[in-house]
From TrEMBL:
Keyword Transmembrane helix appears in the UniProt entry: yes
The protein's name: Sugar transferase
UniProt keywords, alphabetically: Membrane, Transferase, Transmembrane, Transmembrane helix
One Pfam family recorded for the sequence: Bac_transf
Family membership: Belongs to the bacterial sugar transferase family.
Species annotation: Emticicia soli
Tagged with keyword Transmembrane helix: yes
Gene Ontology MF, one: transferase activity
Record-annotated membrane-spanning stretches: 162-183
Domain Response regulatory: 20-133
Length: 398
């Protein structure tokens, strides 16, 4: 079998844990030779039969891999271990005195992960075992992300959303009509602003809001980075286009083609890392005269009642984010904030924002979102909902 290790993130010696192996081998001489060759590098549990190995696996935490000789019933063992859901992904290495293309094909079909000569005269077993550990960790993280993004909205939550928003839309219809007329009289442009947002389970949808900004607001935001309330305190030195290493060598050693231009990839990744996830401005120059009132009174949010009624989001939950914000929160550390329902109001809105404080950091806001995703319940939702009313007339002009 090909012993080339895929390009994975390196594990430092400090980060490594002992590699735990079960060796299934009837030949005592082969066991001794294996321990002489690898005994100081890995933890080995020796078993003398496939049956005893299976029984041991039922009562203990799975090892990092199993090494079993063909002469000890390795191929039959493969069939048994791959038939059980709890051992289906456990790495299995087969050893044989004679390696042929036919044997290689057979063990691949039966689900083996590697094939080595009995004396391990070729191939790097330790390197491959490192790879198996990384592969298992990667698959576990992928499964975790998949489960996180499979968000199920409870019946009680959906029932409350439909019943309350249906009644609210009926009662507020005169106000909605009046606001729509005032927006038309105040400035040119559509009454409703559609914005792509990312909600629960990273679902992308169009959110409805009364327009409070100029029609060219999206173009103006590109030049407003310095006004962002969440901007990090970074050194504003002039960027030369090259990282420190490339500058010393006089030319870029790691070129990246971006928007028709050649840039230094290291510099690009460094700048991207410094960008903040959230965008919010004080005294935003893009907001219209009527827009300031609509925002401060939160009337601009009322059309989102249609989003809630249609099931795009909920009354209470984590605020659905614009695409450019959401894409920065897909790391293992932050992805959990999308495991909670998206909402019109949420935990962070009724904590610091509702009290008029201006010291909420980007990290604090993310952690509040994660806290809600982990703990939301009927009681928690009701608490946030009733705390929302004092927060509606917020004191910060954002």
């Amino acid at each position: 079998m090909n012993n080339t290790v895929p390009n994975t993130t390196a594990i430092t010696e400090q980060d490594k844990l002992p590699i735990k192996i079960i060796l299934v081998e009837k030949d005592d001489k082969a066991v001794v030779n294996f321990l002489k060759k690898f005994g100081e590098k890995i933890h080995v549990k020796v078993m003398n039969s496939p049956e005893s190995c299976l029984e041991y696996l039922k009562n203990t935490y799975p090892p990092d891999a199993i090494v079993i000789s063909r002469s000890s019933g390795g191929l039959k063992f493969l069939e048994m271990i791959r038939a059980e859901a709890w051992t289906r992904t456990l790495p299995v290495v087969i050893t044989s005195d004679h390696i042929t293309h036919g044997l290689l094909k057979e063990i691949i079909e039966k689900g083996a992960d590697d094939l080595y000569p009995s004396d391990f005269s070729s191939g790097d077993l330790i390197t491959r075992l490192d790879y198996f550990i990384k592969r298992r960790h990667y698959k576990a993280m992928q499964q975790t992300k998949a489960s996180i993004l499979d968000v199920k909205i409870p019946f009680w939550k959906r029932f409350i959303d439909v019943s309350t928003t249906g009644l609210a839309l009926l009662l507020l219809s005169p106000l909605l009509i009046i606001v729509a007329i005032l927006i038309k009289l105040d400035s040119k442009g559509p009454v409703i602003y559609l914005s792509k947002r990312v909600g629960a389970g990273y679902k992308i949808f169009s959110i409805y809001k009364f327009r409070t900004m100029r029609t060219d607001a999206d173009q103006l935001i590109k030049n407003m980075g310095s006004l962002n309330m969440y901007t990090k305190n970074t050194d504003t030195k002039q960027i030369t286009g090259l990282c420190e290493t490339c500058t010393g060598l006089g030319s870029c050693q790691q070129q990246l083609y971006l928007d028709g231009e050649i840039v230094c990839e290291k510099m690009y990744l460094s700048e991207k890392k410094e960008k903040v996830a959230f965008m919010k401005f004080q005294n935003d120059p893009r907001i219209t005269r009527l827009g300031k009132f609509l925002r401060n009174s939160s009337i601009d949010e009322l059309p989102q009642l249609f989003n809630i009624f249609l099931g795009d989001m909920s009354l209470v939950g984590n605020r659905p984010l614009p695409l450019y914000e959401a894409e920065k929160l897909t790391t293992d550390e932050y992805i959990e904030r999308f495991a909670g329902p998206g909402g019109l109001t949420g935990l962070w809105q009724v904590t610091k924002r509702g009290k008029g404080k201006k010291d909420m950091t980007e990290e604090e806001r993310i952690q509040l979102d994660i806290e809600y995703a982990r703990n939301f319940s009927f009681k928690y939702d009701m608490k946030i909902f009733f705390m929302t009313f004092p927060a509606l007339l917020q004191s910060e002009n954002v």
